[in-house]
Structure formats: C-alpha cells, structure tokens
Design a protein that fits this description.
By secondary structure, this protein is mainly α. It is built from 19 helices and no strands. The chain is globular, with a radius of gyration of 21 Å.
Length: about 375
C-alpha cells in the first residue's frame, strides 16, 4: 500500500540522535519497533498495573496487553487512512514504557515525592527510557530511536520540562510544546487509539471484576446502544458473550467514526505533506457526537470503576508503598543496585529505579525493606 502524501515517510525521517547506517531489510520505523519489543522496559510491562494489580487476576489487562491493543487499533485505522503503520505500532508499543508500578497511583505518588526535584511525568519518563535508561548498545545509552517515534512517545509535557528538553536538544521532540504545533498524524492517531482501547478494555475488566454491572453500563449511551443491538439480534445469547459482542460493536463504531471524521478533516485542511500537518490543527479526531459519547463513557468509568472503594483501597496502599520505597532509597542509596546508587543525581536516580519496577517487584522490595506484608 502506498502512503498518503501527508503520512510519515521513513525515507524523510529527521533521523536519530546518533547517526547509524540504514538496516538492509528494515526501514527506520520498523527498526524502532523491533528495538522497543526487545527492550527490558517492554518486558516489564507484563507485570505493571493497568487498573487492577497484576496479582489480583490472571485475565485483567496489564500495561503490556494494553499497549498491544493500542497497537492493533492504531494499525487498523492507519491502514485505512494510508498512514505509516510501522510508526504507529512503534509509538503504541513504547508509549507506556515510563509508567510506574501500580498505574496512575504510583505515578501520582512518585510525582509528589519528586515535587521539589523536577516532578515526575510518565510520558517524559517513557522518553527517558528510550533515550537513556535502556543499556543495550556499546555506542550510546538508550535505543537511539528516530525523531518521529520519540516525538510520538512524548504525548504530554509540562512547559518547564519542554523548555529544559528543548535547551538540550534545540528544535527536537519538545519544541512543539513551546510553539504549539502538532506531532505527526501517526502520533495523533496513537493518542486516540489509546483512549479507544482503555475505554473498551476497562469495561471488560470492570465487569469481570464484579465492580461494574451490565445494568449500570446501560446508562451510558455509547455502550447501551450496542448492548441493546446485541440482545435484539441474539436474544438467546448469555454470559460473557453478550459483553464481548457489545464491546466489539462499540470498538468498530469508534474506529469507523475516527476514519470518517479524520478523512473529512484531511480533505478540508489538504496538508501537502507531513510538515504541513504539524502546522495545522489536530486532524485525527472523533466526530462531535462520538467525542461527546466517549467523554461520557470516560466519566462513567472514573466514577464507577477508578473511584470504586475496592480500587481506591488498593490505590492508597500502592501510594504508601511508593512513598516508603522512595524515602528508604533516599536515606540509604546502597539499597539500590550500584548503577543507581552511584549516580550523582540521587533523587532522579531513585525515581528512575522505582519507575522501572513491576508491581510485584515493588511489593517484594517494600516487604524486604520494611518487613511488612502487602495486606497488613
């Protein structure tokens, strides 16, 4: 399939921070994807929380399965829009590499611990992982990914961090946060595929956990429509097949909506190439109706799942573990491996070490240091 004129073409990539000879059988973005898949940080995602802790159930999503679902949705949409599927996949697989153990609870706790030392942003941490914290190659730290993949990984960035990054890499991946331009269409697509994926799989995990019921979900317009259609067409259907079919229809509707709405935006803006995309308004989008319904669903999940007392109980415990690990390592850096303990930037070294932990490793470390069990 030929790429659209406004897609990211690997031959026109802005390159890598460290120059490398091209690979004989792969283009730049395919090479990025392969490096991400083989990284240590990527393997750790299998034991990092999405909503439910890894040890709470074998079938709940983890950061790894979430990333795979984002990549699948992103590639499907990119194919229809003639965007670069390999770049979409690379960004999707790497976008959560910087997430802490215990999901957003761990991130919030680590950000509070680092409040006087530069804070903590998981998107910025994902960039740190691929730029510096992976140690696989003799010539440089990090994975030495292409500009376009790194740009897509840095989904959000505070003004202060953008200025710091831009000073270190003038005109680099943080510049768009200063001049208010957009990333590539592939990066924009990953942002939306991320939202579509977690809305759908959090419904599945919420029902599986028993914290959310189908009856309650019937109050949400986006889901209730496809639940009703499923039951009308398959009145004998029972059990989880009802849920799966309703979610499948909802996912398909969102994907087709993004494709149609984005095509309309691209026709109206008529960008001449990938650089013109950066100067335009965001072009990968939902229709206004789907945007409103997706927002309603996110608000429902926030109230009924993410703030459920059982989830909040785990969240509180997770934050306590992160805070106490942080304090222990600051007090005695020798509790960490030498590669972290010997760094001059003590606070950032501790943040990097904790952010790289899986849920179960963080729990084991906390038990080792404090002598207290997770459920005490």
């Amino acid at each position: 399939m030929s790429l659209a004129r406004y897609a990211s073409h690997p031959a026109q990539s802005r390159g890598r921070r460290h120059a490398e000879a091209p690979a004989p059988t792969r283009d730049a973005f395919q090479r990025d994807r392969d490096r991400i898949v083989h990284s240590t940080a990527f393997r750790r995602l299998v034991y990092k929380t999405q909503v439910f802790l890894n040890h709470e159930g074998d079938l709940f999503r983890t950061r790894l399965t979430h990333s795979l679902e984002v990549a699948q949705l992103g590639r499907s949409i990119a194919r229809s829009l003639r965007l670069n599927e390999d770049l979409v996949e690379a960004i999707a697989l790497a976008h959560d590499l910087g997430h802490t153990p215990f999901g957003h609870a761990g991130q919030d706790a680590l950000d509070a611990c680092m409040a006087e030392h530069g804070g903590f942003e998981h998107n910025l941490q994902s960039l740190r992982v691929v730029d510096a914290l992976e140690h696989r190659y003799p010539q440089y730290d990090g994975l030495n990914l292409s500009f376009e993949t790194r740009e897509g990984i840095l989904k959000h960035c505070s003004r202060a961090n953008a200025e710091r990054l831009d000073a270190a890499e003038p005109g680099g991946v943080a510049r768009r946060f200063r001049d208010r331009t957009q990333p590539s269409l592939e990066a924009q697509l990953c942002n939306l595929a991320d939202e579509i994926a977690y809305n759908a799989h959090d419904i599945d995990d919420g029902v599986r956990s028993g914290l959310v019921g189908l009856e309650t979900l019937g109050e949400v317009a986006l889901f209730s429509r496809y639940l009703r259609e499923t039951l009308e067409e398959h009145p004998q259907l029972q059990g989880r097949r009802v849920l799966y079919e309703a979610i499948r229809r909802m996912l398909s509707a969102q994907v087709y909506d993004v494709i149609d709405a984005t095509r309309g935006a691209l026709e109206a803006a008529a960008p001449a190439d990938a650089d013109a995309v950066r100067r335009a308004a965001p072009l990968v989008r939902f229709s206004e109706t789907m945007r409103a319904q997706s927002t309603e669903l996110k608000q429902f999940l926030f109230r009924n799942l993410y703030r459920h007392p059982r989830v909040m109980q785990t969240t509180s415990r997770a934050k306590e573990v992160v805070r106490e690990l942080f304090a222990a390592y600051i007090q005695d850096a020798q509790q960490m491996p030498a590669s972290y303990a010997q760094r001059d930037d003590r606070y950032r070294a501790v943040a990097d070490y904790i952010a790289g932990m899986t849920d179960r490793f963080a729990i084991r470390e906390h038990e080792r240091i404090t002598g207290r069990q997770w459920h005490e």
